[in-house]
Amino acid sequence: MLQNKLPTKLILIGASTGGPGLIAKIISSLCPPKKESIVIALHMDPLGLSSYAKRLSELCGYSVNLVTKDHCALTSGKLYLLSATFSIEEKKGSLFFKKTDRNKSFYNPTIDTLFASANSLSSVKIAAYLLSGIGEDGAKGLSTLQNAGHKAIAQDEHSSIVYGMPKKAYELNNDIQVLSIDEIIQDIQRELKC
Fold it and tell me: Which residues are known catalytic residues?
């Protein structure tokens, strides 16, 4: 098996209600990732994800990869949109998406699954952002990342469409940084060295 080109950093974004517009705003403000990769877990009807990926591609000017298959390689310089619940696995110096059973969760994709799997990776730095959404998906995963020393940021109440998931993340772990959507964009720009 050939090794894929590992990213030096993973930028993880989780969102639900209000997420499509916020993610579009973020992506349209970023330079393309080079040594980094961006992975987005968005609660959205799977039927609309293909057209949403195309819209994001038009906004950012480069291809957005819709992850639909098990064992899809995760390489540097790319933006990925999850079509279902996937974890990230590291094997023999390569990263892959692994489709997981979502029977334990109402949400699809499950943000907590993505965040928790990233915490087990030893070869990359993690910067995770939890945006607007109903419920608490992503809150535990973001707290786990924060406790492990990774960058973990929750969107603030004022700029959230629905202040559910980010609020729960901060309630679980007061060390999580809280930023507005504009501050989150600036932070990701710094991560990508835009």
Answer: 16, 43, 137
pLDDT in tens, 97-145: 999 875 566 778 999 999 999 999 988 999 999 999 999 999 999 999 9
Among residues 124, 23, 35, 133, the alpha carbon closest in space to that of 82 is found at 23
Q: Six-digit token pair at 51?
A: 């057209």
Query: What is the identity of the amino acid at 167?
Result: K
DSSP string, 67-114: E-STTEEE-TTEEEEESS-EEEEEETTEEEEEE---TT-SSSS-HHHH
Residue 109, class by beta-carbon neighbours within 10 Å (0-12 exposed, 13-18 middle, 19+ buried)? buried
Task: Tell how strand 86-91 and strand 94-99 pair up.
Answer: antiparallel
β-pairing, 72-74 vs 94-99, is: antiparallel
Structural tokens at position 175? 């060390």
Residue 15 and residue 50: Cα distance in Å, rounded? Answer: 17
In total, the chain counts a number of residues equal to: 194
Whether 20 and 52 have beta carbons less than 8 Å apart is answered as yes
Judged on CB neighbours under 10 Å (0-12, 13-18, 19+), 4 is middle
Q: Taking the model in full, what pTM does it have?
A: 0.94
